[in-house]
Design brief:
Chain lengths: 168, 105
């Protein structure tokens, strides 16, 4: 049992346990905080896969951006003093059946397939080659992504803005 | 350097478990923001797959570039979805996906 295995299993356990917390938590704020640990665990898995740039991007964008957005959404849409009386979940039986089938199939296929893998390569920095790829092979998706982000930004502002005096 | 015992399969299994949990969250949760969290879990699990195949497979860095695009799409999607949720909350005073059924009548 070397250190790589120990660290991997520790972070895999952190990721999965906090993901379970996201899905099964009764309080929406606790779910959001569990999501924080899931994102950190996933970033650690990226580091173990020697994807340093993606790991940093994960922390910056997911933890610093999306999670903050989610927490803002929670704060703005839940009444502060209201305890959630009603059960906050539904369709439990079909969900368990579907998810059990999906998980069983996926894990069965993944563990029985003999994946052709490359040799275990030594670590190399990835930021520079990723930048080169974005500017050469993937330049069209890169520009499309920038346009998409602009459209999403403007669209989000227009959708969320409260219109004065007018109700649809 | 010692070759670790943890291989591609372990990462893929972690990703499959996260994917299943995300699907479960999307199906069972009523609150729209909780549904969004399930979607984020699903996107993250897909990213783990891409990067694991980049590391252990034979596809250079393409998987990591695709993972960056997935993260970008997740950010855009979260922003739009939260704007829609805020608007629905202002109009209908609820964020539960089963109570937003104005179009039914």
């Amino acid at each position: 049992m070397n250190w790589y295995n120990i660290v991997f299993y520790a972070f895999a356990a952190l990721t999965i346990i906090s993901a379970i917390g996201v899905v099964f938590s009764r309080s929406i704020l606790y779910a959001a905080f569990s999501l924080l640990f899931t994102f950190f665990g996933v970033a650690a898995l990226y580091v173990l896969l020697s994807a340093d740039f993606i790991a940093i991007t994960q922390i910056l964008l997911y933890v610093g951006g999306i999670l903050v957005l989610i927490i803002f959404g929670i704060m703005l849409t839940s009444r502060a003093n209201k305890v959630e009386v009603k059960r906050s979940t539904f369709q439990l039986v079909p969900a368990v059946l579907v998810v059990g089938a999906i998980a069983g199939t996926l894990i069965g296929v993944l563990t029985t397939t003999n994946w052709p893998t490359a040799n275990f390569l030594p670590y190399e920095e990835t930021a520079r080659p990723i930048g080169a790829l974005l500017m050469t092979q993937f330049v069209l998706p890169f520009e499309l992504a920038s346009i998409l982000l602009l459209v999403a930004l403007i669209g989000a502002v227009i959708i969320a803005r409260r219109e004065k005096g007018k109700r649809a | 350097m010692m070759v670790p015992n943890v291989g591609l399969t372990q990462f893929l299994v972690v990703s499959a478990i996260m994917f299943s949990l995300g699907i479960y969250g999307v199906i069972t949760r009523k609150n729209a923001i909780m549904v969004l969290m399930g979607i984020e879990l699903i996107l993250n699990s897909a990213n783990i797959n891409f990067i694991a195949f980049t590391r252990f497979g034979l596809m250079n860095l393409t998987g990591q570039v695709v993972a960056i695009f997935v993260i970008i799409l997740a950010a855009a999607e979260a922003a739009i979805l939260l704007a829609i949720v805020l608007n629905i909350y202002q109009q209908l005073n609820t964020v539960n996906v089963d109570e937003v059924d104005k179009l039914k009548n």
